[in-house]
TrEMBL record:
Record has Glycoprotein as a keyword: no
Gene3D superfamilies in alphabetical order: Glutaredoxin
Lineage: superkingdom: Bacteria
CDD domains on file: TlpA_like_family
Protein name (record): TlpA family protein disulfide reductase
Xref: SUPFAM superfamilies: Thioredoxin-like
InterPro entries given in the database record: Thioredoxin-like_sf, Thioredoxin_CS, Thioredoxin_domain, Thioredoxin_ResA/DsbE_sf
Metal-binding is among the record's keywords: no
Domain Thioredoxin, residue spans: 21-153
Keywords: Redox-active center
Species in which this protein is naturally found: Campylobacter canadensis
């Protein structure tokens, strides 16, 4: 039994550490599931945003509507990853707001959060053709975020 536990432990941490974030390098794969419990992958094509948020974070939530509208107009996909809240709360937020450019994900094992080295919320990554271009940390406001994204369109 101890050998099985040790093997599981080693495999789990190997999965957590196989990719790390570096600017101007390939984006780490997502290890998160959508609200239908399906694995979601980056497209590695065009502009994509990876947003880390939680429901109790006012700064996380205040730009989501504007960001979704901007993304819809510019063919940008947003991966909204939450590792803090329960799946039911994430589903309810998704249903209530019905953002068309956002895929709501739960990272229940914190693997994606570790790969992207998240230590504060909100954190947003701009990815172009699979390459991490920018990391935007904290409450920066929609105008700032929009200008940063426009630099890569």
């Amino acid at each position: 039994m101890n050998k099985i536990f040790l093997l599981f432990f080693l495999l789990f941490f190997a999965a957590c550490n196989d990719e790390k974030l570096e600017l101007n390098q390939k984006a780490p794969n997502l290890k998160a599931f959508n609200t239908q419990n399906q694995k979601v992958n980056l497209r590695f094509n065009g502009i994509e945003l990876v947003e880390f948020w939680q429901n109790g974070c006012a700064a996380c939530l205040k730009v989501m509507a504007s960001l979704d509208e901007f993304a819809k107009k510019n063919n940008i996909l947003i991966y909204s990853i939450n590792s803090v809240d329960k799946l039911e709360l994430i589903k309810e937020y998704e249903k209530t707001h019905n953002y068309s450019s956002m895929i709501f994900l739960q990272d229940s094992l914190d693997i994606t959060w570790q790969r992207y080295e998240i230590f504060a919320l909100p954190t947003l990554f701009i990815i172009k053709d699979g390459i991490v271009k920018e990391k935007i940390l904290g409450d920066r406001g929609f105008n700032y975020i929009q200008e940063r994204i426009k630099a890569y369109l």
